[in-house]
Amino acid sequence: MAILSALKRMFGVQQLPTIRLDIAPRIGADTIHHIRDNQRQASASGEYLQNQAVKALKFARAELVDDRNNGHRHENRINGEGNIPAYWHIAYSAGFPISELASTIDEYLEQLEHFDKEFSTIWQPARRIIEVQFKLEEALKGLAWLVGMRATPAQLARYLDCCGPPGQDALFDRIVCQLGFARPMARRLRMPMDHQHLMALIDGAVADRPKLAVRALEKWARALARSGAPSKPGDLGYVGQWDLPLALVVMLWDIDDVGLSDHPHYPRDLVAHFRAYGGHVLPITSGEHLPEPAPGKRINLDQRHGTDLERWLALASDGDEVAVAAALSSLDETGALESSADLAFGALAEHGQAICADLKDDETLEAQLHALIAARAPGSVFESDDIDGNGAARCEAVMVRAQAWIQRSAGNLRLLQYSSGQDDWRALLVQRKHVDELEALSQQLRLAGRFT
């Protein structure tokens, strides 16, 4: 009662929703549930996790009441603190029966539908969950929970309606089509560094998928450890870390997970719950898959049009018309590349067509490099997550490996590093046949610095 009173005082509401008191796992008095990995290692007692799960559910319910009463204050809560998936995560780690988690699916969808409206209002009507890159990963996690808990087709349809239009991300669209929904499919990954291994897993031969799944999980675990987040039992604040997007692919493509089952970050019980009911999702029949959308407008690089500056930007962006327009609009009042190189590189990088990162920012450099490779050499997998260290030294190591990989695996391309004496990284990935012309144009446009 003290907790409920505190919540009422905190959020200024007199009536909180009814909170079930039977959600604790049904375990014996002498049993302690730890973080739900196969070794049952724990960074905290099972009792602590159970209490945290109960609190998370109460908090999510109270927050929805508060936001409805007091207006939109937390449009980001759809995929953050104070939502039902936060409860699912902790409750799963604590060993709660998955059927208990599934009993709150409709509550989550109600919460999601409410905040989806607020999200669109506060950001802009065209922006939905998967259209914002940092929320795409959370959208995949939410879908993994729903599939693993055996959400009904109607529930899945409600969830997808909140996620936004198709054609935003190749992985998300492939997964949705695998569920049986007809939708156009994007051609590119929004987050290639994070998701290229999952696409390789989906596209791989059936016999190769088990080992590709292990490789994808190992990559995910390395990235988690490097992020600084609590990544293993014993770390302060560790309440379990689960590679849910991988589990989603394993479930929907029926991949043998024997090699994954002992990994502490693989949600084995969630996948087992899915498979216990037949191992497939009842598809929603909606006709043939729609054709892929037409690719964005591209400039024919074999024909020269426009000014020297427009030609330079076209070669730098591999003919991406949108990126060229963005770069042109980013230049300073002189409209010259000579004085606006940083602005041009920044605009190209925002559209996935260049590297533009601080000297020590290995995360940004790595993400931009993977986006470039995914755009220029679709289907290729460049590995860099196993490179240790951080900062400028790691940036250098990533670029050295990329140079070698491109020479070996994408010989029609060349990675050009731009040096201007500043403390930053600037680079382009250009078709080899256009390198000489690009460098000549750089001199004509008096671009400070040089390409190597």
UniProtKB/TrEMBL annotation:
Transmembrane feature ranges:
none
Q: Which Gene3D superfamilies match?
A: PA2201 C-terminal domain-like
Q: Which Pfam families match?
A: PoNi_C
Q: What is this protein called?
A: DUF1911 domain-containing protein
Query: What top-level branch of life does the organism fall under?
Result: Bacteria
What is the organism field in this record? Pelomonas aquatica
- Location of the PoNi C-terminal domain: 168-270
Q: What SUPFAM superfamilies does its record include? A: PA2201 C-terminal domain-like (SSF140731)
